[in-house]
Amino acid sequence: MAKTTIYCPSCDHDFEGETWKNGSCPKCGMIYEWYEAHTEEDYWPACEWREKDWCPPSIGEVYQHYCALHNLNPELSSPAELFPNKCYAVACAMKALMPKGARAVYGGWLGEDVRRKEQPPFHRHGWVEYQGNIYDPTRFQFEGKEPYMYIEYQLSEKSLYDEGMASFRKAFRQPPPKRDDSFGSDGNKEYAFQWILSDKEFLTDLFGEERNWDILVSGELFWLCNLTPEELRRIIDRFYPQVAAHDLVGFIPIDYRAKYNHWVELGAFAAEKI
């Protein structure tokens, strides 16, 4: 790691540190984390400053905890040898070292994998999300680098992380079904739902026409369940529990269920997990 001059905005102090090695200001103790800042054409290392009470775990700390969880001797391996192809398991181990609200996420890596000659549209991958930021202890395997903790702040549309394969699902999403469209073995089976007025207005906007929303047929229900939690945020706390009550929770992608349950745990809704 290269030495560099780091500026602490808290105490207006310059000090020497190592690029990509998280740490704290020796004068005031403020914690900093490295991440890749970027424009459309360029990337460069930058620092995000945080309060003194928390700093993300290092690769070494994640490795030690992972080994302890799986009864492995850390002296017999290393993150470079052990972490590849275990991304979600490593993310789950790392989550235990993070503050409340952190969660292990599964989805797709949309970048290249230098280990492969032919590149698929995405690579299955896992990482940790906390306060809208990404912490990825296993990204190095795709890049052919030495192990490091990748941190991405302010997730943008150009991010290479696709939680729950949401962008992939959107790309292949069909238009909203008509009510008379048949759907699988269920055909046009009807399910009763209860809504508030604003919910019905929201559904009318989604489908592009007004319908009797006290009833959803199978095709409508399946299409709605495959919208992202963010797209359904206005109705999700009333919609998901009713889907579960109809014993159709399998219509909802498991990653979307996990995000909804996480929101419930954080108190975003006065609802139960599904």
* Tally of strands: 12
Strand order of the largest sheet: 9-8-7-6-10
* Count of individual domains: 3
Question: What Rg, in angstroms, do the CA atoms define?
Answer: 22 Å
**Overall pLDDT score:** 85
Low-confidence stretches: none
Sheet bearing the most strands, described?
5 strands, antiparallel
- The succession of helices and strands, N to C, reads EEEEEHHHEEEHEEHEHEHHH
What is the general shape? elongated
Number of helices: 9
Strand content: 15-25%
Helices and strands: which structural class?
alpha+beta
- Helix-residue proportion: 25-40%
Topology (SSEs and partners):
Elements: E1 3-8, E2 13-18, E3 23-24, E4 31-38, E5 43-50, H1 59-69, H2 79-82, H3 87-95, E6 103-109, E7 123-130, E8 133-136, H4 140-143, E9 150-152, E10 161-163, H5 166-171, E11 190-192, H6 197-207, E12 215-217, H7 218-225, H8 236-245, H9 254-265
Antiparallel strand pairs: 1-2, 3-4, 4-5, 6-7, 6-10, 7-8, 8-9, 11-12
